[in-house]
């Protein structure tokens, strides 16, 4: 799979995970109806399914690479949904994590590595 396809899988997974977790957050921390848990759980199921599509022979490697994308997506959520602009340290940390994710996912590997 090519890099844009991989990024699309990870971006979709991040959106699904963040939305699902936010539904639980809204119910537990903001007093939202327990009905929020239904779409939240569905969203978390979509997240798990999407990660199975990641182009890695090993789950741990796919999850590790996804972590960088999740961090960046979480900061976008912070900015767009929660209306709190990420600061320089947030953005620097996300850039470091994305660089690490790219190394994990796209570095050349020995056969079986």
Automatic annotation (TrEMBL):
Keywords: Cell membrane, Membrane, Transmembrane, Transmembrane helix
Main location: membrane
Topology in the lipid bilayer: Multi-pass membrane protein
Family as reported in the entry's similarity comment: Belongs to the UPF0060 family.
Cellular localisation: Cell membrane
Parts of the chain that traverse the membrane: 7-28, 34-51, 63-81, 93-111
NCBIfam families named among the record's database cross-references: PRK02237.1
Name of this chain's protein: YnfA family protein
A family per Pfam: UPF0060
